[in-house]
Amino acid sequence: MADLNPLYDSATDNQEIAADSQARINTPLAGGTIPAEDQEFLSNIKALVEDGTIQLYAPSSLLNDEVYEGLPLEGKSKADQNCVTMLGKIRDIINL
Description:
About 50% of the residues lie in helices and about 0% in strands. The protein is mainly alpha-helical. The protein has a domain at about 35-95. The longest helix is centred in the C-terminal third of the chain and has 22 residues, at about 75-95. It starts with 18 loop residues before the first helix and ends with a helix.
């Protein structure tokens, strides 16, 4: 493994995490509230998914078909890539 990752140390692989470190990691951040505008955004995204406007495994559900059809091939390719990326991020948001 060391030949694949020069930082790999077999002595620390699967080592127990110290209790104080684990407690610090599991403590919520101070002021862990979501700002109102972020909460509104999350609610809007969730509503669009629930009503089927955004389909989590259909990138075309993010597209405006009229605009998309008017794009050159390069623009369509970029839009396709962006839709796949955005859906991945939306799935992450929904899973929060």
